[in-house]
Specification:
Helix content is about 55%, strand content about 5%. The protein has about 325 residues and is mostly helical. It folds into four domains: about 1-115, no CATH class; about 120-170, no CATH class; about 170-275, no CATH class; about 275-330, no CATH class. Strands 1-2 form a two-stranded antiparallel ribbon. It has a two-stranded parallel ribbon with strand order 3-4. Strand 1 and strand 2 (about 135) form a beta hairpin. Helix 2 crosses helix 6 (about 80-95). It is globular. The N and C termini lie far apart (about 55 Å).
């Protein structure tokens, strides 16, 4: 039992994962490591103490042993330590501007803990059975769009986005067109579901560009699939993701500096899911927009881009072979 606590308790896992972020060339006092680990462990504690999480853990475990022992088994089965290794490594890349210090680890731990323990909000809705009354409910992730309380909801938007950009809940994000520009969702997502067919190729590219970015989820899955076993076999106890990116330079001759952080081949791809309404104009629009996106990529960065796009669209002989002959190859 003591071995289970040492290996799989959230506090010990947090301490080991944070400790691996500090390289041999850097020095952080033990008190800094312990304080950062305590903050992260407290965030994990709040997650496992939520009623919905308790029900999931209990049903997954299927035994009548104490809940804390079920949590240990859940952490072991889900390999929480590897999850935190990946999460903290990439969170650190966004926060760090220099060497890893105790303050950097503290900021890192607070950011991760806040994503784990997202606060709820109180909402009221119209009661259809009593138009003079209302229904109150407490969502954790949902945001009210517009209305008198828009300012308060705007303050929660970064918190919800931060939670989605973590390996923990929520796992699905539904958004209006507000989410299609200027925000990143690539950390733990590589699939986009288009609720409607975009009207133009620019919007199409903007939507899918939210999950096709630097060190995105699909890139990391491919790197881990190819080099994960060899990196784990090293057994040196260092930061595994530093070793993975060092190993994933086997395509530099083909892709140059774009690999491994922007391009890395493998089974994981950026997924596009479209559901045009049957017998509607969406199906025809989707067929047209796919062709327009290909032409848009061909004309991207050219002067008078819209005119060139329209000219290519009008030509009847435009096919993949023709496009290849017109393309200027800027590959490294």
């Amino acid at each position: 039992m003591l071995a289970d606590v040492a290996l799989f308790s959230p506090g010990n896992i947090a301490l080991r994962a944070i400790g691996r972020l500090v390289s041999e060339a850097e020095s952080v006092e033990d008190v800094g490591l312990f304080e950062a680990a305590a903050v992260l462990a407290n965030g994990l504690r709040s997650l496992f103490n939520r009623p919905d999480a308790i029900k999931i853990v209990e049903r997954t475990d299927g035994t009548d042993r104490p809940y804390w022992r079920q949590v240990l088994a859940y952490c072991a089965a889900g390999n929480l330590e590897s999850v935190l290794d990946e999460y903290l490594h990439h969170l650190l890349q966004d926060l760090r501007n220099g060497p890893v210090t105790g303050d950097v680890l503290s900021d890192l731990a607070w950011n991760a803990a806040s994503a784990l323990s997202l606060r709820t909000s109180s909402q009221r809705a119209l009661n259809a059975s009593d138009l003079n009354g209302s229904l109150s409910f407490v969502p954790r992730f949902a945001l009210r769009y517009g209305g008198r309380r828009a300012a308060g909801e705007d303050a929660r938007q970064p918190e919800v986005r931060q939670a989605f950009n973590s390996p923990f809940w929520p796992f699905v994000l539904a958004s209006t067109s507000v989410g299609q520009e200027g925000v990143d969702f690539h950390w733990w997502c590589h699939a986009v579901f288009h609720w409607n067919t975009p009207a133009n190729p620019v919007d199409f590219e903007q939507r899918e560009g939210r999950v096709d970015r630097y060190r995105g989820h699909a890139i990391r899955k491919n790197i881990a699939a190819r080099h994960g076993a060899s990196v784990l076999a090293r057994g040196d106890g260092g930061n595994p993701w530093n070793h993975l990116y060092e190993a994933a330079r086997d395509y530099e001759g083909q892709y140059g500096g774009f690999t491994p952080c922007w391009v890395y081949p493998g089974p994981a791809k950026i997924e596009r899911h479209v559901a045009p309404i049957l017998l509607s104009s969406d199906a025809a629009r989707y067929a047209r927009i796919k062709k327009d996106v290909a032409l848009y990529r061909l004309t991207f960065g050219q002067p008078r881009q819209e005119d060139l796009l329209e000219l290519l669209r009008r030509r009847q002989d435009v096919n993949p072979g023709t496009l290849r002959s017109l393309r200027i190859d800027l590959a490294p």
